Amino acid sequence: MSILQSIMETAAQFLPDKKPDVMKADEETYVGHARTRVDGPAKVRGEARFTAEFQIANLTHAVIVHGTIAKGKISKLETEEASRAPGVLAVITHENVPKMKAPPSVDLSNMGKGFALSNLPIMQSAEMHWDGEPVAVVVAETLEQAEHAAHLVRAEYQLESADVSFEGMKPKAVMPHDVLGEPPEITIGDVEKGMAEGDTRIEQVYRTPRYNHNAIEPHANIASWNEDGSVEVFDATQSVNLTAHTIAWVFGLKRDQVQVVAPFVGGGFGGKVGLWNNIALCIAAAKVVNRPVKLALSREGVYRVIGGRTIAEQHVGLAARKDGKLTALMHTGMTATVLSGRYAEQCTFPPRHLYASPNMYIGQKVVYLDTVANTWMRAPGESIGTFALESAMDELAHELRMDPIELRKINEPEKDPTKNHPFSSRKLVEAYRRGAEKFGWSARKAEPRSQRDGKWLVGQGVATAYYPFLRFPAKARLRICIDGTAVVQVPAAEMGMGTATVQIQHAADRLGLHAHQVSFQYGDSRLPDTPVMAGGSNQTATIFAAVHAAVDEAIGELLKLANKRADSPLKGAKADEVEARHGGVFRTKAPEQGETYANVLQKAGVPFVEVETSSAMPLETMKYSMASYGAQFCEVRVHEETGEVRVSRWLGSFDCGTIVNPKTATSQLRGGIIMGIGMALTEETLFDERRGRIMNPSLAEYHVPVNLDVPHIEIIYNDIPDEHAPSGARGIGEIGITGAAAAIANAVFNATGKRVRDLPITLDKLM
Ligand code: MOS
């Protein structure tokens, strides 16, 4: 049995929702119901296997040896001793690694080709490009043997001067060609004139550090080559299909010679999109030893070869008249990237869409550094961008002696401020109203340092959350079977957020079936070849649109079958005269006239109908300004003597269109907010600006929030459908982190009177 077969058999047990249906007869739809995750029981029982947990016959283990210079050449690589160590099967270096083509770099407009965040060749020469770049891969019979031998590899280097200091490289910053397809610079009116016209103005600099990815499951792969030259790869990935394409490109294979599988992924947050060095090296190692290879990164390994969030510096200038109306909005940002990737993190996206101002200047620059390619990390751009902009709005409100929610209301735009498009649906003011009421905002004292509880200074803050709506054209395969069940297949990723669950709910509704009759298969690149990925909070909407199209086409096929029979109650019915309901196709205007799927198929004598259908282009995003919105409310307590900050209360009030499943959605939003608490208070990659080396590559020294750092987080929704989004739903995966750091900084200011503009807000900054 191939590794993929064994993997898919394990996964298949959990994919169909075989549980009895809990929907009551008087309830019409599953969308909107707080259903428990279909993969939950398997995870709780420990039956859900993650990449590194699979035991494959004949498996070998690989460990990466990381380089320790930021730039230069390997002058000597001592591998003799490692090669002779017990159990070692191969020590792979640039001298004996299989030829691999450099991966294509990020191009969202052509995702079908796949991509990596850097187009540097992978271990193909003695050249070193970042501290941590792999210099060798040791493969051995056991993990312990591979780890031992990896320590015996010695490298010597010829050092070249490296550009690793963000501060040092700032004078060489350049404007990127584009920021994720948007112009890097936007000018409206005359911002200097606008700044002068204001009665009150603020101009400040906001700094955010490097952040690293710390998904609970570190990146891992198992690769196995077949005799026919094809390769099977088990990958902890958010982008099954894209990664299959990229692997095919790098190894010079046809797309159908590569199979990537990921039934369960333990979080991704943007760090598991595309091809990183470890994936290619695992596959190369399996080729060298001609056996299956497992390469599971250590926590330190993730820091060395997987990029994190860029360091950033943002300048925000705001001016307003006495009544709070903005006369100018200026927001510039500088982020880091690598020449081999040129990814400009979209930190100026929020100011493009949040406030009305007659005069605006928005601009972004990048500096090129010799580091591992930085990458997406939950709401890349919007998370740090909202920290700057929403802190600045709070500063302006304070200067104006105006309530910060009122200031936002006054500057709420009627249409998109920079694109001029109408909003598809924007109920941000309503989210603020409902949130303020539930949180008890009116009880807050605006004057800083005016609430205390013993030695604890208490304060509350708000900030706007914002994340754009994304949808990609995609294919879904739908099979409706003679027993009245249906299967939806899309190569989606399930990182624990509830993808399979909400897709079953939605498909059941579209098909008029019960949820237990629908299964959703994902996480396998042999499913329809379509660039579906869990990134940019797009996946739910992307698949919804594909399912809409597939259901329509399948109903057309069923009508054709029914029409062949003179006795069919659907005889002569056109596609637009029927609907899917009660397990079959029925006339919309004569609801009792129709047939179940089972009946149509039985009478036609065919076991199933199957379609593979593409959704329409996302034209809605070109006609409308589409985004999810939210209002973050938090309360902090700051110890007067030690400066310790505790987040004591949180309420997020969101406007994300239809909430498909309040249970999984709430969990997603809470997760985002918790990540925002980390971003605001504890997380920071310590980076040696002289050597270009990450100094705290471990959870012991890089502090993500733990249970005690997180209060109860209440989440409420407008739950107003967006009629331009498929089934009314916009994205929820990333918006939770946006605005969170600003809400905390604003609450800290309210508590202490101290404004912290450089994250994280550590004790020393409040003493
Ligand atoms: Mo998200 S940062 O697009 O996984």
Please give a structural write-up.
The protein has 767 residues and is of the alpha+beta class. The chain has a seven-stranded mixed β-sheet with strand order 3-5-1-12-9-10-11, with helices on both faces. The protein has a five-stranded mixed β-sheet with strand order 7-15-14-13-8, with helices on both faces. Strands 16-17-25-26-29 form a five-stranded mixed β-sheet, with helices on both faces. The longest helix is centred in the C-terminal third of the chain and has 25 residues, at 539-563. Residues 13-18 have low confidence and may be disordered. The structure holds dioxothiomolybdenum(VI) ion. Dioxothiomolybdenum(VI) ion binds at residues 238, 268-270, 376-378, 380, 535-536, 734. The site of dioxothiomolybdenum(VI) ion has 11 residues, from loops.
